Amino acid sequence: MASIIVGVDPHRKVFTASVLDESGRDLDHQHFANTGKGHADALVWARSIGSIHKVGIEGASGLGRPLAEFLVGRGLDVRDVPPHKTALRQRGRHEGKSDRLDAHRVAAETHTNDRLAHAFKNSTTAAPDAVRDQIALWHNARISLRKVRVQLIGELDALIHDLPEQIQAKLPERTTARARITAVAALGRIRSTDPVQQLRLKLIRHRTKMLKDFLAQDEAAEAELTKLVDASGSTLPSIPGIAARAAAEILLEVGDPRRFTEAGFARFNGTAPIPASSGEGGGRPRRHRLSRGGNRRLNAAIHRAATTQLRCEPRARELYQAAITRGHTRREAMRILKRHLSNTIHRTMIRDARHGQLLT
């Protein structure tokens, strides 16, 4: 039986599957319900056409996750196709857009791109990691809490700014919004005969209580993340500048580190430099431009760790100063430090993965 590649464009209630042969020729397409029965029907349909070589799912960790779990459980090679990859395949007004076209683009990308990640960021076909899924839930909860916290602090700062002058005089000047909020709370219950001021003070008390609740929830989420990072067996927090919450974000964004080489990991996180030299003779240092590609969340975590290391880690300062001495700019020296830190993170994660494999 001929080998086939299947591409899937998933939605909440339905998904569309398209089948290509080994030469990339379109064989068939079909729509299915995004349910357990629909998953089974799609597998029977695809196998009736040929032997399944690979299945590409757009967003295998999102709307396509139930189907991806079903297919991985049947031992199929499932690849996660990022949405921007299919957008590059000539999605435009001249071609139009439909579920069939999107599924075909997913299948074509799966057929031609051997570097697509396995589903759930694994290095081989494997089920999702339970600890990593729990880390994702708590991490997303912290992101939501942080957004609400920022909004509440902004509202409180505006309300406090409009308080009467006699109250403003009791508050610290030219300081942070959090300090002003704390100072107002320390004043106790403030009374006023003005109905507008009464409402403003009532809203300040209410928002302050909400802020305390969200801060408590954030602390609880961070404590849970610390436990889960320990449960994962990761030693990333042993690297200076990487706290448990940063380690959790790195674990989420990277997944299985064995799917990257050291250089590939640097390209993935955006710390691999882009050559930008001209007139390199005469002993001048080779110039490289900072990469704006790669995973920007992971890049931001590495940047924060590098900034922290510059303040408290002697080896990082030595590396940074050595780059400056060789004629590099401060920005280039920071890039060199980030690349060094990227290599350290990758080696640590590879060592952790091997150690976990030995334990199991």
Describe this structure in words.
With 360 residues, the chain is an alpha/beta fold. The chain has 3 domains: 3-128, Nucleotidyltransferase, domain 5, CATH 3.30.420.10; 131-231; 236-278 and 286-359, no CATH class. It is 56% helix and 11% strand. It has helices spanning 36-49, 65-73, 83-87, 99-112, 130-161, 165-168, 177-186, 195-231, 244-254, 262-269, 296-312, 314-325, 330-359; strands at 3-10, 14-21, 26-33, 51-58, 78-81, 274-275, 288-289. A 5-stranded mixed beta sheet has the order 3-2-1-4-5. The protein has a two-stranded antiparallel ribbon with strand order 6-7. Strand 4, helix 2 (65-73) and strand 5 form a beta-alpha-beta unit. It starts with a strand and ends with a helix. The model has no long low-confidence stretch (mean pLDDT 90).
What portion of the residues fall into strands of 2 or more residues? 5-15%
Helix content percent band: 55-70%
Radius of gyration: 26 Å
Give the overall shape. globular
Count of discrete alpha- or pi-helical segments spanning 4 or more residues: 13
Fill in the CATH topology of the largest domain: Nucleotidyltransferase, domain 5
CATH class of the largest domain: Alpha Beta
User: SSE string, helix = H, strand = E?
Assistant: EEEHEHEHHHHHHHHEEHHH
Number of E-state strands: 7
**Secondary structural class:** alpha/beta
Major sheet attributes: 5 strands, mixed
Number of domains: 3
Taking strands numbered 1, 2, ... along the chain, how are they ordered across the largest sheet? 3-2-1-4-5
Mean pLDDT, to the nearest integer, reads 90
CATH superfamily of the largest domain: Ribonuclease H-like superfamily/Ribonuclease H
CATH architecture of the largest domain: 2-Layer Sandwich
N- and C-termini, Cα separation:
38 Å
